Amino acid sequence: MADNNSNTKMSRRKFIKNSGYVAGGAIGGGLLGTLVTTSVTNNGSQTASNTTDGGSNQTNFNKALMYFTRQEDFNILSAATERIFPEDDNGPGAIELGVPYFIDHQLAGAYGHNDKEYMQGPFFEGSDFQGYQTRLKRHEVFDVGIQAIEKQSQQDFDASFVDLEGKQQDEILQKFQDGDVDLKGVTPTTFFELLRSATIEGAYSDPLYGGNGNMAAWEMKQFPGSRMSYLDEIEKEDFIEKEPQALRAHISS
Amino acid sequence: MATQLDKVEVVTVGVGWTGGIIAAELAKEGVKVVGLERGKERSTEDFQMVHDEYRYAIRYDLMQDLSKETLTFRNNRDERALPMRQLGSFLLGEGLGGAGVHWNGQTWRFLPYDLQIKSMTDEKYGNKLGDDYTLQDWGITYEELEPYFYQFEQTAGIGGEDNPMGAPRSNPYPNPPMVDTPITKRFKEAAKNLDLHPFQMPSANMTENYENPDGQKMYKCQYCGFCERFGCEYGAKASPNVTVIPTAQATGNFELRTGANVTEILHDGNRATGVRYVDVQTGEEFEQPADIVVLTSYVMNNTRLLLQSELGQPYDPETGNGVIGKNYCYQILPGATGFFEEEKFNTYMGAGALGASVDDYNGDNFDHSDVDFIHGASVSITQTGKRPINNNTVPSGTPNWGQEFKSQSIKYYHRTLSVGGQGASMPHRDNYLSLDPDYKDAYGNPLLRLTYDYTEQDRKLHEYISEKCAEILKEMGADNVEPRSISDHYNIVPYQTTHNTGGVIMGDDPETSAVNNYLQMWDADNVFVVGASAFAHNGGYNPTGTVGALAYRAAEGILKFRDEDSQLVQAKKDSQLA
């Protein structure tokens, strides 16, 4: 809930300053990785000296890259998701929730490789009503899209996307949503829509997938997660607040 | 090359509600039935982890694997049809129980008007829509179908209460209605103030512990909010897996084969000899000879198998001749959203069929003299359980990402209610199913091609019903009400409804229908095609109740056919197609 998050009201600028994020590709991937990981996993805590999760002393080994091969690409993705689902008075944004890791992990698996989608050709550009029509799989769409974000940023602002002010980043992302950039193999709108929906999915899915850290997004939205029965409450007039519960609760061992 | 198997009396293609009903009814009578299901086996014990919106509602865990088979789509015949590469507009099921596993459980009877829509409309309003709308009667009256509706309701343990404007009932529902929540109460109160006739929506989510006439037990619904797109971990939602399939299996006369993907109906002229299928694990082909072939898969696949097997005459939109693929209908989804500034509702709780409805604007329940359309919609409020990924309703004009989006979507998560109509869909000569000339499935067979767009009838109906939904929400006290608008063309991307119908439609004339009122093919006496593919148009309700009734009717027809071995219904016109 919002009032629990006074310690997380860190502006993006401050976040960047604390984490060294502002340096973009200038800092070595290993070091930057640690810093970003720290900021993501600490639920807003500004200590950058350890990699803990949710107050426990156990390192969260899930927070490493399964799909992306370049830290820079991951940083651009992270910055973009944060603009789509930013930290605000309600609570944490995409980065703190772990959404970039969620997307990274999803791109490595069935989602990223369109395992359940029809990907046979021939491929033609469709009408606005015919849906996804690209030979690129989702992981390739993200590759192409992230590179294009950076290119557009250099072109418009002569700076890396991760170094831009929030409003400038929004301008770039808006161009993708509006279809006003050139992308190879996929429409910019298709890429943006994937980015947007994956960000929301990562924020609000069960924490088992690596996003929705500490169920903080469910708390913001007052969604109680996976509860087995509301039989005794469904007829009650007043709004009932409940602590969220994750799927982990249904594992018996 | 294909392995020849021993002949069986009956083979069904697909084991969901219709395959399960046919299997149960026939096996109880001692008939040996083989059920071929391309997906895998599953049961209640598979659903312990089912409260997972991402896995089931977003990534469609229970749905069809489109990498193997999908359909192609275009808005009109001048366009190039392209594959539906991802699921969206409708969610095709897969696996034992089919879409009956992940349905919400809203279980209706179509209206008497639906079954005789052509003659009743003509009588009252003349040829109001014109000849491009291929309306026709279904070849059966409501009175004839009524006992079968009740049979399905008993099997599925439907709970409900009297619908003053609905189809008449000879028996009360087997179970009481679902609980009346603050949301359903609010809707009913508003509806009454507007002189409408509200009632609790009929439900296949159990309202009590229940044992059906076949001895299958189901348990009381817990209102956990995970029905649509999910299986039920309690066995509290009627599905084929907890009702008809175990009934069939208990007889010892039913053999289920999963992982069996049927690719062709084998036939010698106008008589089916069996089916060919592929074992999806080994790739091995089998031929299963049978006396009677029953197509019990989804609308799309029933139609495709007939076209691919060259059984029945394909529909030609140029001439209007032929029937297979004809009268494909969808549904029109009018409605309105109400934003409540000062109130929050427990919308995260619910059940798939928890809701309240009015039928005052459905069928011919109101006078259409002064409107430019026929039929209408059932209008409902539902409390199915709002989950956070899929529910981010914001006032119009709000961006769909960024800070404003985030705060508005959080603010209104529990502060919006929607009233929506399931709009009936009238058949049009340009909306149909055919085989795609370019795209193939994993087995090298052509994909089904859907040619579909909204009609003027659809747009008028949408506008009218959306306005009615908005009136109810205003009366419910919403501070701000936004009626829905219909898109320029039908769009296959956003989810709308899985209520597809038609393609193998029923009627009393072989020139305009593919099956008779037992769902027996006019052109092949020993083939029955069961499901919503038989609907000559789509009504203003969820189709499963009517699908179930027609399946029981078909089961009776199949038993009758075993004795008579002939066409069971005298065609209205003596115009049997070659």
Automatic annotation (TrEMBL), chain A:
PROSITE patterns: TAT. Keywords: Membrane, Transmembrane, Transmembrane helix. The chain crosses the membrane at residues 21-40. This is Gluconate 2-dehydrogenase subunit 3 family protein.
Automatic annotation (TrEMBL), chain B:
Residues 427-551 form the Glucose-methanol-choline oxidoreductase C-terminal domain. Keywords: FAD, Flavoprotein, Oxidoreductase. It comes from the Bacteria. It comes from Sediminibacillus dalangtanensis. Belongs to the GMC oxidoreductase family. The keyword Ubl conjugation does not apply. Residues 216-328 form the Glucose-methanol-choline oxidoreductase N-terminal domain. This is GMC family oxidoreductase.
